[in-house]
Amino acid sequence: MNSEKTLKIAAFFGFLSVLIGAFGAHGLEGVLIENQSLETYKTAVNYQFYHTLALLLVGVLMMSNPSKYLIRSAKMFVYGILFFSGSLYLLSLTNYTLIGVVTPIGGLFFIFGWLALYKSFSNIG
User: What pLDDT score was predicted for residue 27?
Assistant: First the structure.
């Protein structure tokens, strides 16, 4: 994964964050209330957006220093968004609770993404 690809993925996830958040607030609100999962859906959107911003930062940092730790961090944030937020979206919409076992895996990807980002700063000055 290079800086250009990372930045494009971040821009796409940012677009999706706004789209999914707005659709949840306006088009899916009834389903989410019926499933008692409005807060779960909001958590998914928030974590997606926070980690989209982190991914954007990693992409910018990769432009001047494409280290293996930044590449690893970018991948971990992408997987985290897909597994954590993705599973919460599915859980919110379907109420199929077995999907919830995937969510902690996404959380671990987020943690490893932040650790890799931390490690990328170890060689700075």
Answer: 87
Query: Distance between CA 111 and CA 72 in Å, rounded?
Result: 12
Classify burial at 78, counting beta carbons within 10 Å of its beta carbon; exposed 0-12, middle 13-18, buried 19 or more. Answer: buried
pLDDT, tens digit, for every residue of 7-53?
999 999 999 999 999 988 888 888 888 889 899 999 999 999 999 99
- Cα Rg, the chain, nearest whole Å: 16
Q: How far apart are CA 72 and CA 55, in angstroms?
A: 11
Q: Could you give the CA distance from residue 3 to residue 61 in angstroms, rounded to a whole number? A: 8
Q: What is the pLDDT of residues 43-99, one digit of tens each?
A: 999 999 999 999 999 999 999 988 999 999 999 999 999 999 999 999 999 988 899
pTM, two decimals, is 0.93
Pick from 72, 69, 41, 73: which is nearest to 54 by CA? 73
Name every residue whose Cβ is closer than 8 Å to that of residue 32 and which is 6 or more positions away in sequence: 24, 38, 41, 92, 93
Instruction: Name the packing angle between helices 38-64 and 103-120 (round to 10°).
Output: 30
